[in-house]
Specification:
single chain, 201 residues, alpha/beta, Rossmann fold, seven-stranded mixed sheet, three-stranded antiparallel sheet, 8 helices, 25% strand
Length: 201
């Protein structure tokens, strides 16, 4: 499993900031599922965006469950828990945000995420094809670069599972290259035209 980098999809992150966070901040608990988290830059990027746009006590109510399945390596969970990443992964983060949430690590060329960000992200190994959700009443589910590897029927089943475990009016984000299958389109409304951001109906 290759390293990805932080703030990879700025368009989606900005859509979450503008359309998702204002709605979820009203909730008693703000729960997010990042399905297909790789080595962790995506869930941590999400956590940073929420931290930047929630108040102190609102962020206390925020949690991300980050999941992935890597049949070749068992190291990615340890990397996420440590929150230490090479400069190559973090160099695209806006400088002001980077300075607030990262500090140099003892390992040259590596940086550690602030503990308050690490503590709101939990990791577990999970196979989406099992169709067994890791929880329920999620305000937001993010699933990128996973659905394209599934057969059409599997993709439909996984999206139906996501719909079931979203809270009422919860949000779903997928990669730009993926269109919502016709068989699940009635389960969501498209929030904005330029991002694959949907809201449960």
């Amino acid at each position: 499993m290759a390293f990805t980098y932080f703030f990879r999809d700025l368009t989606a992150l900005n859509a979450i900031k503008d359309h998702v966070i204002p709605e979820l901040r009203k909730n008693r608990h703000i729960n997010v599922w990042d399905a297909g988290c790789a080595m962790g830059p995506e869930p941590y990027s999400l956590a940073i965006i929420f931290k930047e746009n929630l108040g102190y006590y609102e962020f206390k109510r925020f949690k991300i469950c980050a999941t992935d399945l890597d049949e070749e390596s068992q190291e990615f969970g340890k990397i996420i828990a440590a929150g230490i990443y090479p400069e190559e992964s973090v160099k695209r983060i806006p400088r002001d945000i980077f300075k607030k949430h990262f500090s140099p690590n003892n390992k040259p060329g590596h940086f550690k995420i602030a503990d308050e960000i690490i503590q709101c992200v939990s990791f577990q190994k999970h196979d989406l094809r099992s169709l067994r959700p890791v929880g329920d009443k999620f305000g937001l589910i993010v699933c990128k670069n996973v659905l394209l590897h599934l057969q059409e029927s599997e993709r439909i089943d996984v999206i139906r599972m996501f719909h079931k475990c979203l809270a009422a009016a919860g949000f779903f984000v997928t990669e730009q290259t993926q269109k919502m299958p016709e068989k699940t389109a009635h389960l969501f409304r498209r929030v904005i035209p330029n991002v694959q951001l949907f809201q449960k109906v």
